[in-house]
Write a structure and sequence with these properties.
This protein is of the alpha/beta class. 41% of the residues lie in helices and 20% in strands. The chain folds into three domains: 143 residues, Globins (Globin-like, Orthogonal Bundle), CATH 1.10.490.10; 96 residues, Translation factors (Elongation Factor Tu (Ef-tu), domain 3); 137 residues, Rossmann fold, CATH 3.40.50.80. α5 packs across α7, α6 runs antiparallel to α7 and α9 runs parallel beside α10.
Length: 403
Amino acid sequence: MSHQLSPQTIELVKASVPALAAHGSEITKRMYAKLFEDEHIKNLFNHSNQGEGGSQVHALAAAILGYAQNIENLAVLTPVVERIAHKHIGYHILPEHYPYVARALLDAIRDVLGEAATPEILSAWGEAYWFLADILKAREVKLRNSIESQSGGWNGWRTLTIAEKLAESEIVTSFILRPTDGGKVIRHRPGQYLTFKLVVNGNEVKRNYSISCGPNDEYYRISVKREANGDGGSRYLHDEAHVGTILEVTPPAGDFFLPDEPSRPVVLLSGGVGLTPMVSMLEAIAKGYPELRAHFVHGALNSATHAMDRHVRSLATEHGRVAVTTFYSEPSVKDAVGLSHDHDGFITIDWLRNNTQIMASDFYICGPKPFLRSLVNGLLKAGVSSDRIHYEIFGPADELIAA
């Protein structure tokens, strides 16, 4: 494994930044097309992210551009490496899969840049790719070893059985999952997700769902929104999976979680089904951190879609130092402020400034991309330092947030 890149490679990669900025998405689109010619590689991916919007394509283009721009200061990329390594644990991507990506990436650069992709440029990108791949592979080995060495830990796919299925709202259902072999499960970090291999209409699909219960060694709970025009993963769970259905799952992964020893007050901000990792964090706080001050702030459409409210409020009451505030953006006729929810409208930075310890807290945020974009950017503008703003994105991190 090379421990540093040659000066010539660094210069050539930096020189290719303008071309990448201009053609990045075209290159990554071409790369995925080449990658997916191989059926067993194609099956490793979550294809709901490859769709028409191509969010995965843009996210990868942004990541490659970021790598090229920071090739001399790779410490900047540590959070990105961590996020990718966790995704690879989830999708069970192994060292033997890396050469396929190398080949597809270099072929795509050659196809899109044509004559500009000189042998020197391609050789530099080959070296740069393997340098980053070695960093990732080393991190993934560490993560896998750590998971396997813990009680209830496992590597790759394991079967869990649906033990209970509970309606949480008109659109959200919870599933309690226990190991089919009767063994223990590894205690997840509150905020992490599980990756599932589901068979939908005869096709194998992979999906990530956040764990919505606190850490324990007996079961996991996921709480899934039924996506009416989604890709079928959520519809399969809602309509076809039942108590007794066996699902294939990789161990908990994800770099978004509550720290072991929270040192500051915590504000949990969620929109829609983004509350799932927040409920996991709240259960962990209720059970393990009696002194911690926390504020659970949630935005839903209305009472019909709002999940787990009673559970959240009982955890808060039991703890004694947790406040709960809910916002409805489209209250129904039977919803009333003070009864079903606390405020009409959306969560705003002004409200957070007036009602939370905005400068003293750590913020954990999860929800749809527009929700994240407005709150992450709003908190930064309000002067909250970026190391106190933690967020989970459903699907690939898009460049607006990455920036």
